[in-house]
Task: structure prediction
Amino acid sequence: MSANTAQKNSHWWLAALLLIQVVLMSANARQPDGEQSILSSWFMAVSTPIAGGIDWVISGVVGGVGSYTDLRGAREENIRLRERVDDLTGQLNEARERAAELDLIRAQVGLPALPDYKTVSANVVARDADLWYRRLTIDRGTLDGVKRNMPVATASGIVGRVVAVGPNYAQVQVISDKHAGVGAMLQNSRAMGEVRGMEREGPLCELQNIPSSQAVEVGEPVVTTGLDRIYPKGLMIGTVERIESNPNAPWHKIIISPSASVDRVEHVLVLLVEQRELKVEETAR
Result:
């Protein structure tokens, strides 16, 4: 090795040693506040902008992906809502058509139009634990215009009558109570009788006082007569579920399935009609 080459190498080694010494001194040296070394400060000063740039890029990518995901979710939810609207619109049109058919049928069989009584909606808040399915407690009372013997119904048919009432509650005796009675008639034949509750038949009722000579069909509707001065005439009670005929008995035993779900009803309507109003109306008819 020549003298010139050795001299050049010594210069490089000297520079390397000086750089190492500066690095070591920077690592040990502290900022005036004593919290951070100078080397750490330099490193943070250089790396922070780089990290910020990387974070900006990553945030942009993540934000873009999130926005796309949210947009896609909103579109899917919009599709579901449109399908639901279409379904509800179809149900509404079907209900309107059935209502029109019902009005036509009522006119054909000679039933009067349903009376337009004022109503108040109520929620079922309790059921009688001793006579299950027999009495309900609703969250409306005298403050809402509810009085004893006012009929209670749903859109499907009658539920029962108010037998006790307080300021903000009322007890309803349902038609399946064995002590309940409703003036009723077969819609097709117009034969009249009385619907009574049955002790061990759950929500089922019995249509009594129909002669055994009277033709009765399973599925035939049973409606109110209005003669009991509690339920207005023409309200739906239920349909004939079965007929237990005895050739030696003067009367049919006709089992009725109520149209209203008296065993699991949650919302009802109280018809704000009093007995004296029914008496005048029925007499006029």
